[in-house]
Please model this.
Amino acid sequence: MVTPGQIALGILAALCFLGITFHLTRRRLISERISLLWLGVSLALLAPAVFPAPVFRVAEALGFKVTSNAIFTFAVLVLLAFNLFVTTRLSVLDQRLRRLAQDQALGTMDRGSSPTPARPAAEPGDA
Amino acid sequence: MPVERYPRGTVLLILPAYNEEVSLASTVDGCRRVVHAEDILVVDDGSTDRTPEVAARLGVRRARLPVNLGIGGAVQTGYRHALRAGHRVAVQVDADGQHDPLDVPALVEPVRQGRCDMAIGSRYLTAEGFTSTRLRRFGNRLLSAAIRVSTGTRIADCTSGFRAVNRRVLTSFARYYPADFPEPESLAILLHAGMSVLELPVVMRPRHGGASSIKPLDGAIYMVKVLSVITAYGTFHGTVAREA
Model:
């Protein structure tokens, strides 16, 4: 079973994580939207540290012989999901950066030796 | 043989250029024989050599990207301009001198006549001219097979960047155009969206100068990427059709 020392360590780690999340949010080093996610992760760490018994029951119900294996499995799945989320955000930013660079290039385009030939037409996404 | 130039504002030639100081001027000279100077757009993809200075002397349109976006981002810049400026047809012509601008009318005409949405200048319909390295030919065959399985259409030269497109394609490409090694993927997008593609034989030349942007390792990585994307398009056909 879990010793009081282990519980204290778990609570301390979760509180540290929570503190770092608050600090980064206050300094605006992570956006509020992302900080909500990390806040959830902090609480998800804190809950089993304070009440470890349900974790053992869940692990047993899922057929894990060693509880720590269940915790590692969940942790890996959560990290994978978070990685995927970050990747999608990066891809969106990449698209926006590309659009911005193109807009800047077209906005400062040198028109060559003669004036613009035709009337401007609407482009999808311009609205 | 004298070539008649297209009326102003109808056909845009897009020249994506990354470090093409050696070959850009001669390519633009060739392009001037088929369109007027203001219908030639050099998209400088953040070159670090004298490409901007060379382009400035040529009297054609110039758009300089503040950062290097890669060939897809550069070409899409041209497509977006063509769509906004009201051009009926846009043609990508590589600034490295591999594409002969005198072949442009052969690609433009079927598009103007409504016989296809995209016309591709193909190296592999005849055995003439420069046909790239053996490794790249093998890569092209592999991609061609993937496109055939995925879309049911056989395209012999699916990596050719010498392509003329109409406004329907411009609208699609202005919205989304792949970033790296875009030709095969963009072909799959069009074919899945029900657009028509016509291949025409052209003779390509070796590069006049500069270096290819595709290194062997990059080529292998892109090959895996493009094959997986084309397969994904085949799997999620409906989604792609709506996207395009």
